Each structure stands twice: as structure tokens, then as C-alpha cells.
Amino acid sequence: MGGRLVEFNHIHTHQDENWTCGRSMAFDDQELIHCEARDPDEEDACRRCAEQLLGYFGEAMRVH
Q1: Contact call for residues 62 and 52 (beta carbons, < 8 A)
Q2: Of the candidates 2, 4, 7, which has an alpha carbon nearest to the alpha carbon of residue 35?
């Protein structure tokens, strides 16, 4: 049985007037990559974090 790439963790935190979005991708429960972005706007922080993942994996990947 083959492994699969999954979003392992996706969290948002708010501190010092900035939102931080952190995402981890894992393969068979082993973290491969961790991306993080900060912005005063929560949605912009999340979008920028997703763009980092797309930079590694390409547009074919669906990131929410």
C-alpha cells in the first residue's frame, strides 16, 4: 500500500496585531515541509502561506 501526501497541520494564531498562518505537509505522517506567513489580515496571511506551498508543489495541488 502506497503512502499519501496530506495536509498535516493548518493553524492560525494572532499576536501583536499580526496573524500567522502555519501549514505542514506530511507523507505517511512524516512532516516534509512547513510554511508560515504573517500579515495583519488573516486571509492574506493564509493566502501567502498557501502560495508558499504552491511554490514547492505547483499549481496542480489544491490548497484551501
Answers
A1: no
A2: 7
Structural domains of the chain, ranges and CATH numbers in brackets: 5-57 (3.30.160)
- Return the amino acid letter for 61: M
pLDDT digit string, tens, across residues 4-61: 767 678 999 999 999 999 998 888 778 888 999 999 999 999 999 988 888 877 665 5
Around Cβ 46, how many Cβ atoms within 10 Å?
21
Percent of the chain predicted with pLDDT > 70: 80
C-alpha cell at 13: 494564531
Of 30, 20, 28, the closest CA to residue 52 belongs to 20
d(CA 40, CA 1): 43
